[in-house]
Amino acid sequence: MKVHGIVFLIVIGALLFAPAVSAKIVETKDGYVVTTVDTASRLPSVIPMSSASISQGQTQRYSSYISGGKSAFTVDLNWGVPSNSLSLTLNAPDTALGPYYDAADGRTDGRVNLRISNSGGLTSGTWWSHVYGYQVTGSQAYTYTGTVS
Fold this sequence. Notes:
The protein is mostly beta strands. Helix content is about 10%, strand content about 50%.
């Protein structure tokens, strides 16, 4: 029993002190930094802002109003089928970012999960997210979530 307790403490200690996976920069443009979202802090796909389906060549748009003083916008486009390809382009009031495809966040998993930040603050106004059916067989269901912080 004593040995099991020591092994348990070693395993717990290793988990607590394991290095965190840092976000990777995907793009920098016009003061914006687009980074990957660490797996542990990814938005859950069970609470979608929007749920829809898309076909080859279609574009669907989502708007998010960002007020002054906000520093980050996290987007999560999740379709879960890597054999189909969707893309995500973001249009801020002052620039366009993307397009981003499945592997942009470092994983090929039918998901684009990114954080857009600006040390001077995000430009306030309406931001548009464009979901495009880049290479889709039939119709592909997906969820889209945009979170401002």
